[in-house]
Fold this protein.
Amino acid sequence: MSKARKADKAEARQFVVDCSLALAWCFPDEKADYPQAVLDSLAETAAIVPALWHLEIGNALLMGERRKRCTAADILKWLSFLSTLPITVDDETISRAWNDVMDLAREHNLSVYDASYLELALRRSLPLATLDIPLKKAALAAGVVAYKP
């Protein structure tokens, strides 16, 4: 198989995963079939995230600790787990934050954070895995398909 064909095949098996979905892999009270199926699919595919993903995950976990949903030890375990997954960071997110991402946020009434996932999925023509209802609606309106593991 040629290098170009291998690259095309790898790209076809990639998807965008947002913070809401990844957090369901951590918090026990958020376990559900769809997030588990997405996680299981990472054995054969890879995910990509915008540059803010690590900060958004860290903040959500810290808020969970402050609300007594988890402990610092839980967070260390979950961050270690997340770091082993085939999730790459998109390098272009930052350069698009104040134009394309902001425009999508305005157009779809999203936070800039959520719009960054939509922008990435649109730019790379990738499906989106999310549990966030407004982001799902915006993705559908923009022509982005939901990731189906």
Observations:
- Strands lie at 14-17, 46-49, 87-89, 128-129.
